[in-house]
Design goal:
about 15% strand; about 25% helix; alpha/beta; EC 3.1.3.-; about 525 residues; Alkaline Phosphatase, subunit A; hydrolase activity
Length: about 525
């Protein structure tokens, strides 16, 4: 009898795609990620379908576009009627274990208003079993620190302050107060090894989440000085932030509203005020946090090898979203630029061709159906993604998507108020993007559109939406965006119909890509 398969889904937080050595980041040292890339397929054109964390993880784990799951921002509830990867794995006999977090706010109709989960950014998604919780409020991690005998400061988050730098704000190469042996990355890794050792030789699925390289961008020693800021890539931005602000009202708002405090613990002023030296230092710390994760993954990989499970385990490495890192004078994950949405996806096992860099257009909604396909589960009809198994084998279906698609909702939440600042309503504070290798179209519900000629302007400084020379192209891509949204409208029950003979279920698979509007010449 064939041994049942294992799946390790590694989900890091805020790791952008161009910080993968296999995709050109030769300044970064990640030998264990490099190994996955050598033994599997690395996807060059992979995006998250939305940002920030909560909505992105909802798309990753439900396989649904933002337009369908509607957990549109951190703190906005996820409708309990939606299935997810955890629930689907239970149907085929797997116990879906989760280490880390999903930043999911529960459906208020399934509980009461005093539920403490409504006082946090989010909790665990129903269907998964936590074997190493971080949420709510990182209590799992801080409790583990206390159990290790570490004396927590009055303000627990001060463990990430740079040693001896309390009074000096901004980017720094000083180490965090917490040593690497007690870092959150070590916490998650210890939980993973504890879980795997407890499973023995029984088949398993594990979502292994890491908090890093999420800010604060302060790394523990020795990772804090592992990278020289001079070796970091320079930021991609106009000479002055005011030049970029002229591109669009939403960008103008964020350039004035994003503060440094969330990124550097004590940072002062707007993120747009960072000089290039500070950005290079921020990127050096970001890389240090990445190498710390890579070292931790080496421990997990070594255990899988020692126990003979390496070849039986499909490993998927991805992130929830990217990070602006000072590009376009921005910090965080927001808006419409590629730096926030392009993320890593590497798959080892499941027939993946070793060492291949694949240019197929892939999205985070594809991860759920891929895992279900690997483990013998059924992909829900409502799912907006498709299994990548054929792509891994080098047989991309002829009807595969021709456009990348992602969305962003910028309604007011308690820590950000773009809706109010721009004079919009809650339900018109949204945008969607379609793009391919040539062009990128950004449609706003109540603000002017954007259109970029990516061959001429790959970094998206020049808005051509009102340029008469691009009018036909703008119309073409706007129509394609509308067709895509129409073809992905919620369809859980739309394949059923009543007939004189009773209920009929149609089995025709939905098209991956709507017919293209007439190309503009």
């Amino acid at each position: 009898m064939a041994r049942r398969k294992n799946v390790l889904l590694i989900v890091v937080d805020q790791w952008r795609a161009d910080f993968v050595p296999a995709l050109g980041a030769d300044f970064l040292r990640t030998p264990n990620l490099d190994r996955l890339c050598r033994e599997g397929v690395t996807f060059r054109n992979h995006v998250t379908n939305t940002v920030p964390c909560g909505p992105a993880r909802a798309s990753l784990l439900t396989g649904l576009y933002l337009m369908n799951h509607r957990a549109v921002q951190n703190t906005v509830p996820l409708d309990a009627r939606h299935t997810n990867l955890g629930k689907q794995l239970r149907l085929i006999g797997y116990d879906p274990a989760l280490i880390g977090y999903t930043t999911t706010t529960p459906d208020p109709r399934s509980t009461g208003p005093k539920d403490p989960r409504f006082t946090t950014l989010g909790d665990l998604m129903d269907g998964f079993r936590s074997v190493g919780a971080f949420e709510p409020n990182m209590d799992g991690y801080f409790g583990w620190l206390a159990h290790q005998g570490y004396e927590l400061p009055a303000k627990r988050e001060d463990i990430w302050l740079p040693e001896g730098e309390d009074a000096v704000p901004g980017a720094t190469n000083r180490p965090s107060r917490i040593p690497k042996e007690l870092s959150d990355t070590t916490f998650f890794t210890e939980k993973a090894l504890t879980y795997l050792k407890g499973k023995g030789d029984k088949p398993w699925f594990l979502h292994l989440g890491y908090y890093r390289p999420h800010p604060p961008f302060i790394a523990p020693a020795p990772y804090n000085t592992m990278y020289d800021p001079a070796d970091m890539p320079a930021p991609i931005r106009a000479a002055r932030w005011e030049e970029e602000a002229a591109q669009h009202p939403l960008l103008r708002h964020y350039l004035g509203a994003i503060g440094q405090a969330s990124f550097f613990r004590g940072g002062q002023g707007a993120g747009a005020g960072l000089d290039e030296a500070s950005i290079r230092q921020m990127r050096a710390s970001y890389c240090g946090l990445m190498t710390e994760i890579d070292d931790a993954l080496g421990r997990v990989f070594a255990y899988l090898e020692q126990t003979g499970q390496w070849d039986d385990t499909t490993i998927i490495f991805t992130s929830d979203h990217g990070e602006q890192l000072g590009d376009h004078w921005l910090l965080g994950k927001l808006g419409y630029f590629d730096e926030s949405f392009r993320i890593p996806l590497v798959i080892k096992g499941a027939g993946a061709r070793p060492g291949v860099i694949d240019d197929t257009l892939t999205e985070s909604v594809d991860v759920m159906p891929t895992i279900l396909d690997i483990l013998g589960g059924e992909v829900p009809r409502a799912c907006d993604g498709r299994s990548l198994l054929p792509v891994l084998a080098g047989e991309t279906p002829a009807d595969w998507r021709k456009l990348l698609h992602y969305e962003y909702d910028y309604r007011d939440i308690h820590y950000s108020q773009p809706e109010t600042a721009l004079g919009l309503t809650m339900d018109t504070s949204s945008l969607c993007v379609v793009q391919d290798a040539d062009y990128k179209y950004v449609h706003f519900a109540a603000l002017p559109p954007l259109f970029f000629d990516l061959k001429r302007d790959p970094n998206q400084f020049e808005n051509r939406a009102e340029d008469p020379d691009y009018a036909a192209r703008v119309k073409d891509y706007a129509q394609r965006a509308l067709s895509l949204r129409l073809s992905h409208a919620e369809r859980t029950l739309t394949h059923f119909r009543a007939t004189p003979q009773g209920l009929e279920e149609r089995r025709t698979a939905p098209a991956a890509q709507p017919p293209r509007a007439a190309a503009a010449e």
